[in-house]
């Protein structure tokens, strides 16, 4: 019996060897496949955790952006009111001076100028801080990810403080120049309009459009000039020296300038300005509604454009809008800007650019 089995094995030896090789190969291939699947799963889990961590950090950074914007609105409002003080003119009018008409004309220009300046500067503040804090946020994410292995932090605290202090340009020289340009445009548009002339909301919107067109069509500089000091010398002056910290600050300022000069920044700023002026008109529209109980055809909801007010009555309405625009308490005006989808997308793109290792190769 055993000899028969042995003879059978010898006759089919090659088949047994082949079958064994196949079975062994399949076993090894299965083990290899299991190992690779495990590696892929571990890699995917690591990437998922890293992505979740970065998303959490980004969202936290956006909340910081929002809080920073709100905290900067009171000093912005104070700077505007200091330079364009309509309250002094209002107090003078109460004394019934001989040059009453002249004071009213000054009040007309100052009231419109400071409200329009408030819209522009608030929109600029929102978008500028989105750029700056997401550049810083991206570098902080890389620093935290590198941990102790990082030889030199990309954004140490003292560099952050020095870099973010560049916002003073918007509150200082940039704001002063912006006021000058807007005041000239207001004078050109409204200077010849009589205080007794009645304007509808549509006519008021047209006046604002003319003023915007003149301000934004200035050929000598772009709107980004008002946000950050221009030129290498100015950037170096802000960094105040040639220490390693100052060199890092200059690098951040140059990167910011590149972002401010990009088409994406111009697009997002324009979106904010359109929304800002639209919200301003919505606020003004509340004062153009017919008196309650008016049963005339003009009191219909779609008759709002037909309601007109003398310019002298519009001036105090416009003058008070700065309290809504530059309010540190979240108002519809500021919320519209902070929650705008294109602003959020732009912020995400900036953060993405500076929170990946490839960003270091720029």
UniProtKB/TrEMBL annotation:
It comes from the Eukaryota. Keywords: Peroxisome biogenesis. The keyword Manganese does not apply. GO terms for biological process: protein import into peroxisome membrane. One of its GO terms (molecular function) is protein-macromolecule adaptor activity. GO terms for cellular component: peroxisomal membrane. Interacts with PEX19. Involved in peroxisome biosynthesis and integrity. Assembles membrane vesicles before the matrix proteins are translocated. As a docking factor for PEX19, is necessary for the import of peroxisomal membrane proteins in the peroxisomes. This is Peroxisomal biogenesis factor 3. The lineage of its organism: Eukaryota, Metazoa, Chordata, Craniata, Vertebrata.
């Amino acid at each position: 019996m055993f000899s028969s089995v042995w003879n059978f094995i010898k006759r089919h030896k090659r088949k047994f060897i082949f079958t064994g090789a196949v079975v062994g190969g399949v076993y090894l291939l299965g083990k290899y496949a299991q190992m690779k699947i495990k590696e892929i799963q571990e890699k995917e889990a690591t990437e998922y955790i890293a992505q979740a961590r970065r998303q959490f950090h980004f969202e936290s950074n956006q909340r910081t952006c929002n809080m920073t914007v709100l905290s900067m609105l009171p000093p912005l409002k104070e700077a505007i009111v200091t330079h364009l003080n309509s309250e002094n003119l209002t107090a003078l009018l109460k004394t019934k001076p001989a040059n009453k008409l002249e004071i009213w004309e000054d009040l007309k220009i100052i009231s419109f100028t400071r409200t329009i300046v408030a819209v522009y500067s608030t929109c600029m503040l929102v978008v500028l801080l989105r750029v700056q804090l997401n550049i810083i946020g991206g570098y902080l994410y890389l620093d935290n990810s590198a941990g102790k292995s990082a030889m030199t932090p990309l954004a140490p605290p003292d560099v952050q403080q020095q870099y973010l202090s560049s916002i003073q340009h918007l509150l200082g020289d940039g704001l002063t120049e912006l006021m000058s340009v807007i005041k000239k445009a207001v004078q050109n548009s409204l200077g010849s309009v009589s205080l007794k002339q009645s304007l509808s909301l549509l006519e008021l919107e047209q006046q604002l459009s003319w003023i915007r067109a003149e301000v934004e069509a200035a050929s000598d500089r772009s709107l980004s000039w008002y946000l950050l000091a221009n030129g290498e010398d100015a950037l170096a002056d802000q960094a105040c020296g040639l220490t390693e910290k100052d060199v890092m600050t200059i690098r951040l300022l140059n990167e910011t300038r590149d972002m401010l000069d990009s088409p994406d920044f111009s697009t997002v700023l324009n979106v904010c300005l359109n929304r800002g002026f639209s919200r301003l008109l919505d606020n003004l529209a509340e004062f153009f509604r017919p008196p309650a109980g008016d049963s005339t055809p003009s009191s219909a909801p779609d008759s709002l454009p037909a309601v007109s007010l003398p310019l002298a009555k519009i001036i105090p309405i416009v003058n008070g809008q700065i309290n809504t625009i530059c309010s540190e308490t979240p108002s519809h005006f500021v919320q519209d800007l902070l929650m705008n989808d294109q602003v959020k997308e732009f912020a995400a793109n900036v953060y993405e650019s500076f929170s990946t290792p490839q960003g270091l190769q720029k």
